[in-house]
Amino acid sequence: MDMKRLNETKALACQIRAETLKMLAAAGSGHVGGSLDLAELMAVFYGGRLRVDPARPDWPERDFLVLSKGHAGPVLYASLALKGFFPLEELATLNQLGTRLPSHCDRRKTRGVDMTAGSLGQGISAATGIALGNRLAGRDNYTYCVVGDGEMDEGSVWETMLLAPQRKLDHYMVIVDNNGMQIDGTTREIVDLGDLTAKAEAFGWYAVDVDGHDPAAIDEAILRAQAVCREKQRPAFLNLHTVKAKGWAKYEGQVGSHWVGSITEEDIAETVAYLEEEMRRLRAAV
Amino acid sequence: MATVERKADTRELRETYARTLVELAGKDPRIVDLEADLMGAGGMGIFQKSFPERLIDVGIAEQSMVAMAAGLSFTGFIPFLHTFGPFATRRPCDQIYISCAYAGANVKICGSDPGVTGTMNGGTHQAMEDIALLRPIPGITILEPCDHTQMAWAVRTAAETPGLFYIRMYRKACNQVYAPGSEFEVGKGEILRQGDDAVIFTCGAVMVEQSLAAAEELAAEGIQVRVADCFSVKPLDRELVVRCARETGAVVTVENHFTIGGLHSAVSEVLAESGLGVAYRNVGVRDRFGEVGPLEGLLERFGLSGRHIAAAVRETLSGKG
Question: Which CATH code for domain A3-285?
Answer without folding.
Answer: 3.40.50.970
